[in-house]
Automatic annotation (TrEMBL):
Keywords: Acyltransferase, Transferase
UniProt KW Acyltransferase keyword: yes
InterPro entries reported for this sequence: HMG_CoA_synt_C_dom, HMG_CoA_synth_N, HMG_CoA_synthase_prok, Thiolase-like
SUPFAM superfamilies: Thiolase-like
Protein name: Hydroxymethylglutaryl-CoA synthase
Gene3D superfamilies linked: 3.40.47.10
EC number(s) on file: 2.3.3.10
EC class: transferase
Stretches assigned to the Hydroxymethylglutaryl-coenzyme A synthase N-terminal domain: 2-165
Keyword field contains Acyltransferase: yes
Pfam families: HMG_CoA_synt_C (PF08540), HMG_CoA_synt_N (PF01154)
Family that this chain belongs to: Belongs to the thiolase-like superfamily. HMG-CoA synthase family.
Amino acid sequence: MKIGIDKIGFYAPHLYVDMNKLAVARNVEPEKFTIGIGQEKMAVAPITQDPVTLAANAARTILDDEDKEKIDFVIFGTESGIDNSKSAAVYVHQLLGLNPNARSIEVKQACYGATAGIQMAKGYIALNPESRVLVLGSDIARYGLNTSGESTQGAGAVAMVISADPKILALEDKSAYLTADIMDFWRPVYSDKAFVDGKFSNEQYIHFFNTVWEQYKAKSDLGLNDFEAICFHLPYTKMGLKALRTVLEEADEADQERLLANYKSSTMYNRNVGNIYTGSLYLSLVSLLEQSDQLKDGARIGLYSYGSGAVGEFFTGILQPNYREYLQAESHAELFAARTEVSIEEYEAVFQETVPVDGSTVEFDATKDTAAIYLAGIKDNMRQYVNKSN
């Protein structure tokens, strides 16, 4: 039985900042942002968008009535959780009107959370072939204004339906994974901003990739020539390229050219959204599938997931017949085209507007938020969500 991604979509907030202008404002050469780390635009989440609304907005565009009835497991991967007890998945379940006879949970391991959700979903579908699982990766990356990590911020979510006989990507059985207790990136419960040792984190990202890649080759007897493309978790688009270059010499020139060309296609969306933590790898996958004209049905795609702290995994999937018919390329193009650029001053003001943590009752102005689902305010310590499409 084939199990894998039946549907996939993403959502990013309607505001963004131009990285060239951010560089100028921070007295940095623009090329450091646009070429050095490979970012052009950074999505900015207004106060009316949080990880719950981002995920719900990503999912609502891909689900039909049959999905809503058959989905009986919602797995929400995030490192931007809004509650220490109640899972973000429960909110999304209600906002989307899913079958009440369902399980809903939140999974945490830095940027690896959505991958853990997919692997969990795969096992669940193997036991329950008629079911469908909604896996969400949703985050708002925050390092702070005028910090070294500011240029690798972002906001957005990816939603995937995992099922038997998937229409887009069938996941293969073999994978390789690694855990090590390191402090390359973390966010204590008392902080709304992350702490990061950037150089060490980059080194560990590549070390983990090299390790799981060697393990995967030993398990599968496959090599680079067996892959049409490899997608990477992308905290910034140059990061995956650094890792890919460490193994490119294993391939001949034609394979190298193909892998590099498809890598470029896989970064186009991330380059214009920024880092979305748990969703970054899957935003890269969406970008590859919708932007590459070289992919063919039956091609093997590699996926490298890395979550600081740290857990890494390399796994694979096979593109299914006529997979392009089930993508959301047109709606994603419209999403990008409808976004609004904000000035540096406006971006800084939005960044500093945060949800109160003292129990205050507050109502947010959502008149400028174009999303169907948004956060309307806080009342009695409870977030008030609105779905305008209901």
